[in-house]
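Re-running ATP-dependent DNA helicase to confirm reproducibility after the cluster update. Everything else is unchanged from the original entry.
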Amino acid sequence: MRYQWKDIEWVFFDEASMIGYETFIQMDSRLRQLKKKEDEPFGGLNVIIFGDLLQLPPVKMTPIYDQPLRYLPAVHLWRLFSLVELTQNMRQQGDTTFADLLNALRVGELTAQHFQLLMTKILTEEDQVGEFGLHNAIRIFPKKDMVAAHNEAVLEYYRNLRVQMYTIKADDTLVNATRNATNVDIGSIVSTDINKTGAMPSQLVIFVGAKVMLRSNVDVEKGLLNGAIGTIKEIIWPNFRRDQMYPTDIPSVRIDFGRDGIHLIQPRAVQFPALRNYGTIERRMLPLILSWACTVHKMQGCTVDYAVIHLGSQLFAKGQAYVALSRVRSLDGLRIDELDCSKLTGKTPCNEEAIKEMERMRRYQMYRAL
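Result of re-run:
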């Protein structure tokens, strides 16, 4: 995001741990082009980067603080910044016991007392009603297949209640074709990976009461950002229809985002490359996915009051347990569906390289202060 205060322009990068160094270079290059200042880092703009380096690292990229050898001897962009460390925990500020546990987990220093505390939060049959029921508190899993299985289980629960559901299918069109696609099924040249289709799903089951997550930034000022979670309150069909008339109908929906209020979310169009070099696909669809469950990666940056978290054998990356647990405001809002203590010790819970970088920055700031 870019802001201007008086005559000074600022650029803010959020969630630094998710930005790879390769992306960092692209940001720098683009800002130099936009400001027409090729010799000044970030085009001469003032840049502030927010984030916790000990959260999940970027997928298939080098961490933002680690300059790859292939970029030497270029300027190490990360080393141009100074550290301002925030020490007050705002998310868990009302639960110091939980905050202490998280601080220990993020650096791999859990004690026996911490494990005993986590054991008291294991999900029980009594928890299956109320806030921690199947369709209430969000489930946070390490893997996509676990998320899909839980979301399908919740859909089946509502089907058994005979809730009226609608299947919404994306409207895909081939634009800017680079090959003759006259006899080609458009579905065969569209990726099944949502991350390669502009974050828009090909199909979505919705109903009044469904819990959904935004997959794009709709309105930053209103808090309607990628990752915002809410509940569908109304479905509005095209042309003032009272129901879905055609399989191709894509409605608008009113969603209650809690503290951010109720907002109208309309279908959006995105473009992405077609498979096998056929050109560009334009997809029109609601920018939503079901969210009774989400992966740890998708929850990064989110805050919830209640969650059921998987801390079992399926954890596979450093920082997953820390990020998952730290999404919740307090221990009262936490339940654990599986706990493998071995996954919270050793090298799995924390990123040693990120810890070393934090220590380096702290030493550098002390040296500058002398």
